[in-house]
Here is the input.
Amino acid sequence: MSSAEQINLKIKEIEDEMARTQKNKATNQHMGLLKAKIAKLKRQLVDGPAGGGGGGKGDGFDVNKSGDARIGLVGFPSVGKSTLLQVMTGTFSEVAAYEFTTLTCIPGIIRHQGAKLQMLDLPGIIEGAKDGKGRGRQVIATARTCNVIVMVLDAAKPLTHKALIEHELEGFGMRLNKSPPDITYKKKDKGGVNIVVNRPLTKMTEETMRAICKEYRVISADFIIRCDPTTDEFIDVLEGNRVYIPCIYVMNKIDALSLEELELLDKVEHYCPISGNLKWNLEGLLEKVWQYCDMVRVYTKPKGQDPDWNDPVVLPRSKRTVEAFCNRIHRNMIKSFKHAIVWGVSAKHRPQTVGKDHILDDEDVVQIVKKV
Ligand SMILES: Nc1nc2c(ncn2[C@@H]2O[C@H](COP(=O)(O)OP(=O)(O)OP(=O)(O)O)[C@@H](O)[C@H]2O)c(=O)[nH]1
Ligand SMILES: [K+]
Ligand SMILES: [Mg+2]
Here is the structure.
């Protein structure tokens, strides 16, 4: 038996035990520990055999990042990923009725709202992908580097497919449409485990947190808990290495559905119905992708000239300071930065003089004044 099979067997044993255990207050801590054990085993699977050899540590495909954001097309074989890449980006990627037509990662570029979005067509994944089956590990490792996941689903197939793919991605440390739990975690050399909780815990106890720390051999650490975490979320904090990515569920091939079937899909959150090969609702999808990228466009204004409306600097909403803007224009610009003059939503006056920490908004105009 391979080591991956052995690990899978152990995971199965623990899952069986969890299924046998009644869920109540008394078993809560025990269940938490079992979940921690599974998380540790899953990490072993993802990291692969010690010392490398087969493929290395979750390596993705070797495609350079380019553009302002990266969008990954993920899904089972033959759901229409390559068709979608072609109609969205104009880049050729082979389309065929048989499964596993695409065997590598194919990048295309979409220009939208002045931004450049890199879209990646990926091979289909199968169940057990995260455990090293097929090219799944490479696909998921690449998906982890994306700003937005577009999960492509065949609208005529059961919705359980969505849960299966989610499970694969989750097993590789991806968290879709979730935000990280509001927990500060600092390891220390001594002093024991200190947990400061500033709101009532309803989903797990402090005792369970301590037990899970012990399972992870965390002897001394400070925690500040500002949320009401589940056991899984607490384990995520200890595991680290989680990525939180927005995801759009694209229901493709809606041309094959009746109106009644289409209406049922409306209940799925974060979803977007399309037909790739009939080019239905591609505009709607692009708008949604742009929205989920959550970026702002900032226009540069050279002194005494009009702003350059054609070529905005595109920044993630989470990093939209004047300093980030400068760094995108030139690596050394911040060294000669004196102040900036800003027009637009973020400015209190028209214009406002601001420092490098000023937070910009979508469609602001910025002029940089340099030290002399
Ligand atoms: N009816 C219908 N068929 C579609 C649509 N989009 C794609 N197809 C067909 O679905 C089949 C698979 O399409 P691909 O684009 O190769 O799918 P893929 O997901 O890239 O497949 P793999 O690379 O093998 O994983 C082809 O026969 C396409 O013509 C659609 O919107 N409606
Ligand atoms: K195919
Ligand atoms: Mg394909």
